[in-house]
Design brief:
six-stranded mixed β-sheet; 9% helix; repeat; CuRO_3_LCC; copper; EC 1.10.3.2; mainly beta; Cu-oxidase_2nd
Length: 562
């Protein structure tokens, strides 16, 4: 007689094994992408020109990954310019070699060469993006990066019916690199862009729009997730959809406490995820993006539009325009940013540093330095603590890792050389800045508080600052001069927004905190490309920790040579 007891116990064991396998989290995958940097003729506003692209696409391809994945992107450069790609917002733990900013973490990929960006996506999920990080090439070399949560992990908000990427950008009639060089040679701001774009398209308020309008079809009663990215070079942008509210649920790939708004503000480098419910009378509604302008320099103030189109509505119906905040509405900008709060749930806590080991105070300013060949004999500059950063000839991370002397100094001052009324009457004399490749050295695992203070050197202005290699908590912000005796008492240390790019308000200050647990050389710079070129940047050298998993990884064999 067969031993049925043994048979059934064997089947039960097999079933338990199968159930155990299905209950395990999916193994991390390796995602591979090929980026061919190539020049292609693209037409906008009745005008064609050659532009640098990835795979001939403008904007470039979207990278889709899951939290925990390994990503390999082989970048082959077939264009006439040197190239590097930055994965904006990815922390790149111990792996600055894959971060991308030219002459900071790598030398650029030269024409005819390739480099594989090899990195892990650890502890992050949401909307980020990638872009060229050399010269002004990110004007056309950029795209979205979507990190889905781990398999089986839901969003902490209602599951949308569908999602859409909204990439905001700028378009120039002329060659962007030529325009940048002309500005440098003149010592003045270069020509502003000729249009703003939504997914590379200016929309119906511009000529020759028929093929160049982004449209998104929706169904009545359904909810959609928009992944909005500001890829513009020099403009903070307001964004709205006519007659439709938006619920903000994520910023810079960090979940937020949801709040509803009719318009949002997004700085270059930032991302914002919103839920939009198609709950209006079926029709066609404009989505629109227009700059927030609070400076005396000329800016492209034109409005880019796309269309939210209900299913079944003919294209002959003219869309309704949204009401956007006035271009100089600083009050809206300040109030909107005050609404941003980290979700701070049990699953997604806000681990805000309470104790500060290192206090930094960086004054942000414009200036003028002598330039005999420039208009008026001066060149506009920008500085942190009166230092205009000079780019090195080799990668700073390489110099740090290999202990190459003479490339940079680590004596960047913790505070300005002179204390003054930072946001008082405009200062138009003694506007010279010192120049140098000076970095700030940070002890491993120390907690850092950095106050970024706008100044009225030439003019007050808002500045979106991006820190590579880290997220940080925006613990405080205010108008006027930061008061170290009074303002820290007003900090939000419970659920402040966690970001990788933050706006310093016009004539005001922003305080951020982070834990320096990622060794390497990490770029800190204004994400207005204009200001970065003028020297508004520096870098942190975060020292290695004592553990074997707390040191910079060795450089890859195919790291581009200088």
């Amino acid at each position: 007689m067969a031993n049925w007891g043994s048979f059934f116990s064997g089947v039960a064991f097999l079933l338990l094994g199968v159930l155990w396998l299905f209950s395990q989290p999916a193994a991390a995958a390796t995602k591979q992408y090929q980026f061919d940097i190539q020049v292609k003729n693209i037409s906008r506003l009745c005008h064609a020109k050659p532009i640098v692209t990835v795979n001939g696409r403008f904007p470039g391809p979207t990278i889709y990954v899951r939290e925990g994945d390994r990503v390999l992107v082989n970048v082959s450069n077939h264009a006439q310019y040197n190239m590097s790609i930055h994965w904006h917002g990815l922390k790149q733990f111990r792996n600055g070699w894959a971060d991308g900013p030219a002459y900071i973490t790598q030398c650029p990929i030269q024409t005819g060469s390739s480099y594989v960006y090899d990195f892990n996506v650890t502890g992050q999920r949401g909307t980020l993006w990638w872009h060229a990080h050399i010269l002004w090439l990110r004007a056309t070399v950029y795209g979205a990066m979507v990190i889905m949560p781990k398999q089986g992990t839901p969003f902490p908000f209602p599951q949308p019916h569908r999602e859409e990427i909204i990439l905001l950008g700028e378009w120039w009639h002329g060659d962007v690199e030529t325009i940048e060089k002309e500005g440098i040679n003149l010592g003045l701001p270069p020509n502003m862009s000729d249009a703003h774009t939504i997914n590379g398209k200016p929309g119906p308020l511009f000529p020759c729009y028929e093929k160049h309008t982004f449209a998104m079809e929706v169904e009545q009663g359904k909810t959609y997730l928009l992944r909005i990215i500001n890829g513009a070079l020099n403009d903070e942008l307001f964004f709205a959809i006519a007659n439709h509210n938006m619920t903000v649920v994520e910023i810079d790939a960090v979940y937020t406490k949801p709040f509803t708004t009719q318009a949002l503000l997004i700085a270059p480098g930032q991302t914002t995820n919103v839920l939009v419910k198609a709950n209006q009378m079926p029709g066609r509604y404009f989505m629109a993006a227009r700059p927030f302008i609070d400076i005396p320099f000329p800016e492209d103030n034109k409005t880019a539009t796309g269309i939210l189109q209900y299913k079944g509505i003919p294209n002959t119906v003219f869309p309704t325009l949204p009401t956007l905040p006035a271009p100089n509405n600083s009050a809206f900008a300040f109030a909107y940013n005050k609404k941003l709060r980290s979700l701070n749930s049990q699953k997604y806590p806000a681990n805000v540093p309470r104790k500060v080991d290192r206090n930094l105070f960086f004054a942000v300013g414009l200036g003028k330095n002598p330039c005999p060949t420039c208009v008026n004999g001066t060149q506009i500059t920008a500085s942190l603590n009166n230092i205009s950063f000079v780019m090195p000839k080799i990668g700073l991370l390489q110099a740090h890792y290999s202990n190459v002397k003479g490339v940079f100094r680590t004596d960047f001052p913790d505070k300005p050389p002179i204390v003054f009324n930072y946001t008082g009457a405009p200062l138009t004399a003694n506007l010279g800045t010192t120049q140098g490749t000076r970095l700030s050295k940070i002890a491993f695992n120390s907690t850092v508080e950095l106050v970024l203070q706008d100044t009225n050197l030439l003019t007050v202005e808002s500045h979106p600052f991006h820190l590579h290699g880290y997220n940080f908590f925006v613990v405080g912000t205010g108008i006027g001069n930061f008061d170290p005796a009074k303002d820290p008492a007003k900090y939000n240390l419970v659920d402040p927004p966690e970001r990788n790019t933050v706006g310093v308000p016009t004539g005001g200050w922003t305080a951020i905190r982070f834990q320096a647990n990622n060794p390497g050389v990490w770029f800190l710079h204004c994400h207005l490309e204009l200001h970065t070129g003028w020297g508004l940047k520096t870098a942190f050298v975060v020292e290695d920790g004592p553990g074997s998993d707390q040191t910079i990884l060795p450089p890859p064999k195919d790291l581009p040579p200088c």
